[in-house]
Design the sequence.
């Protein structure tokens, strides 16, 4: 896409927005993510950020760090990371 944009004298930037949900184990983090999504489905306001976690980073601190590093190598211009307390 960047190459195509350059041919048209345009510049594209890519942003990845992700909720981060950690837990002592992957199973506990996944359970917390399920609670957050259930809340989003029931919430009357501010629904969009909770209904589907999308590129959500769910897991242990180590696994999330590994995924953030992988995303950085993929080359987005900006990572927007949101931390949710459950």
Sequence:
């Amino acid at each position: 896409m960047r190459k195509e944009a350059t041919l048209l004298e345009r510049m594209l930037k890519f942003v990845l927005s992700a909720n981060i949900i950690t837990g002592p184990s992957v199973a506990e983090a996944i359970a917390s993510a399920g609670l957050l999504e259930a809340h989003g489905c029931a919430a009357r306001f501010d629904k969009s950020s909770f209904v589907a976690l999308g590129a959500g980073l769910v897991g242990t601190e180590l696994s999330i760090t590994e995924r953030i590093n992988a995303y950085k190598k993929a080359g987005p211009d900006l990572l927007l990371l949101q931390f949710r307390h459950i």
Observations:
- The chain has a mean pLDDT of 81.
- The beta strands are 15-22, 57-59, 78-83.
